[in-house]
Amino acid sequence: MNRHIGRKFPDGPVSWVSETELRQQIREAIADFPVIDCHDHTMGPEHAPEYKEPIFALIQGYVQSDLMSAGGEPVMQILNDQDVPTEEKWPHFEKIWRRMRHTAYARVTRIVLRRFYGEEELTLASLKRIRGRLLNLRDEKVYRGILDEAGIRCRLVNIWPDLKDFLEGRYKVYPLDRMLIPLPGFHSIKTYQDIERVGAIVGETVTDLEEYLQVCSEIFRRMKDRGCVGFKDQSAYGRTLNYQKATRHQAEALFNEILEDPRNSLGWPQMKPLEDFLFYRFMEMARELELPVQIHTGHMAGIRNDIAKTNAVLMRPVLELYRDVRFDLFHGNWPYLGELLYLAKNYPNVAIDCCWVNIIDPFYTEQLLTNSLFTVPHSKIHAFGADYGDSVEYAAAHLEVARDVVSGALARAVQRGWLKMEEAVEVAADWLFNNPNEFFQLGFSSFHP
């Protein structure tokens, strides 16, 4: 039962109620709302990490980036080695933990420590106390229980199983999950071996560019038939999002170069016209298959990367041209807030996806969501994606932060009279569940608080 049922919210503006109190009321009301996890990298409990040492268990995922940023890069190998005793790790870990323990990534670790181990502070003593009761995520009941308790009804997963096995039914996606077609491996073509790998998925030998496009089209169609609900592209890690309209002649010349001699290999930016051409053709296939496309924009995992090449505004020509393709732009485009709002406001086929960004920068995300209420139809917001692997306790902890962020954004709007409380709760249900359910055509019944 939803905790807000039976609650009588005040009508009209509530400027006489503090924003903090409103935030708490909304947070309580949405605490058990069902959620679609719009982006994750999960394959099921058999792929979950096996915890043997407490520090290792508490530094999974993104917190490692902040540990490295705080000066821990030289000791990360030690911290990730479960055979090194906790007592030996502690002097290294304590020093860098104290430098970054207030970041949002660190907050996720703190929530995991509190929620799953009952400890409020990360100390050597608390690590010793939890050593004998680390989560067994390979136990299906533990794994699924964490997700169910968090309210995660479905996860959209970007994973890389053997696609031949997937198409032939030998690889089974975890029952909670819906898979995305991993797009970069099909357009980031550098060598003959890359072409051969794609052809082998459906048992075909590729001898020219047209055959390659036909093979890709067949793979995508069959992946949709096997349950894939969209495409996912994270090419921004390795290249600019400035996809340009290359000619077939440009692309074919490069494609033939690597076909003619298996020892040839294309480098960057030499390969850009081929990759751009393929990307545009794949958007045509997305339109034909009526599948949405998720695009990594903004911040990247790890450290030392070029943020300038990942600004979603670089995608404008693609968004403009493929008006019948739905685009789900990731990570709040952090730190480019204004550009993302512009794209979502001006292009009917663009949605804002707040996966990961809730724990990159919660205040930014709260501002993004607040601004979106005034500028963008609220049906175009997808509020949560854990963006972890099979450390599902981190997904649950991330969702706790995301519910706080959603509550904060809506409290601002209610406090200034922009929304009534009942409207705010309805918006939260849409942001967390109904919007992604409809956008990705997942088939769940709508949730009405």
Notes on the structure:
The structure is a single chain. Helix content is 49%, strand content 7%. With 449 residues, the chain is α/β, with parallel strands linked by helices. Helix 16 links the parallel strand 7 (327-329) and strand 8 (350-353). Helix 12 (209-225) packs parallel to helix 14 and helix 13 crosses helix 14. The longest helix is centred in the C-terminal third of the chain and has 24 residues, at 392-415. The chain is globular, with a radius of gyration of 23 Å. Mean pLDDT is 96; it is low at 1-6.
Helix content: 40-55%
Biggest β-sheet strands, sense, barrel: 6 strands, parallel
The average pLDDT score comes to 96
Number of helices: 20
Strands, total number: 9
Rg calculated over all Cα atoms = 23 Å
Elements, N to C (H/E): HEHHHHHHHEHEEHHHEHHEHEHEHHEHH
Globally, the shape reads globular
Quick synopsis:
The protein is α/β, with parallel strands linked by helices. The protein has helices at 19-29, 54-58, 63-72, 76-79, 86-100, 104-117, 124-130, 140-150, 163-167, 184-187, 192-201, 209-225, 248-260, 272-289, 316-321, 337-346, 357-360, 362-375, 392-415, 421-439, and strands at residues 35-40, 152-157, 177-179, 181-182, 231-233, 293-295, 327-329, 350-353, 381-382.
